[in-house]
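Sequence, please.
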């Protein structure tokens, strides 16, 4: 396993001095990239910071992970900031800071973005051999802040030895006439690469093919989501919406549809009754026949 020297306290956790001068070039790239506004930033953090994050990433065997194992996904999630190791936690705090949120607002052209200290639906994610996440659009409103509209995703990959042939590349899909059409962009989840994209009802993404990595490896990432307050505008709330690809057979397409209906029911119950994701993972796993 890779090792990294301890990150010194004086190390800046996001290199503003490197990225800020590049914003005039990055802003039009972000806006013009298809199929949705997005950008992949290589060497997002200083290399020693990213490597330390990868080295201290919690092992899949710990009982602190929530299992999301149902028809539309097979992964682990950890959203409780207090459980994160030191460098991972400090980077999350930095990426939720006022200074960084102002930077990402400038990059995306979306003013008045808000961070989510709860890391609802985000935080640490991990998928081992056989893991996958079907193509989907994200839930539109924060489950516990009804006026918060989800606008931007930041996914930082933490995989020092990842091989492209193992799968796991994030796919951005294009939709035409209401149907999935083609994969328009694809990015390998390499260490210290960050994908930032605008999330709405058209931004389809996922890694739908089961991973073929060795049992000793896993696809690791850190996800943060940013919101705007939408008190005076009507935004129809919707839960995560999964889609079958053109090459998926009718049986898989039916399972995707049935499972997303279960996800929608849970999302509504979560808002009303405050169910935990730990409870949801058990219920969805039961409904889809997965253990």
């Amino acid at each position: 396993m890779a090792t990294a020297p301890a990150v010194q306290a004086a190390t800046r956790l996001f290199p503003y001095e490197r990225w800020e001068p590049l914003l005039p070039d990055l802003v039009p790239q972000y806006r013009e990239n298809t199929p949705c506004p997005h950008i992949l930033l290589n060497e997002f953090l200083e290399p020693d910071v990213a490597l330390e994050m990868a080295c201290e990433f919690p092992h899949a065997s710990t009982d602190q992970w929530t299992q999301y194992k149902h028809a539309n996904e097979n992964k682990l999630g950890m959203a409780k900031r207090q459980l994160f190791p030191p460098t991972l936690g400090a980077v999350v705090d930095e990426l939720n800071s006022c200074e960084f949120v102002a930077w990402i607002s400038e990059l995306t052209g979306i003013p008045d973005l808000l961070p989510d200290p709860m890391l609802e639906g985000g935080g640490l994610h991990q998928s081992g051999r056989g893991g996958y996440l079907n193509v989907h659009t994200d839930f539109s409103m924060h489950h516990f802040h009804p006026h918060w509209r989800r606008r931007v995703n930041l996914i930082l990959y933490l995989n020092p030895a990842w091989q492209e042939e193992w799968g796991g590349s994030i796919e951005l899909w294009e939709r035409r006439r209401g149907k999935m059409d083609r994969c328009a962009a694809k990015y390998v989840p390499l260490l210290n690469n960050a994908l930032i994209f605008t999330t709405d009802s058209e931004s389809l993404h996922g890694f739908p093919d089961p991973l073929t990595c060795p049992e000793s490896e896993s696809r690791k990432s850190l996800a943060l989501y940013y919101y705007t307050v939408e008190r005076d505008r009507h935004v129809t709330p919707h839960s995560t919406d999964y889609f079958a690809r053109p090459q998926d057979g009718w049986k898989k397409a039916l399972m995707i549809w049935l499972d997303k209906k279960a996800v929608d029911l849970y999302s509504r119950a979560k808002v009303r009754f405050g169910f935990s994701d730990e409870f949801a993972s058990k219920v969805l796993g039961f409904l889809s026949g997965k253990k």
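The mean pLDDT is 89.
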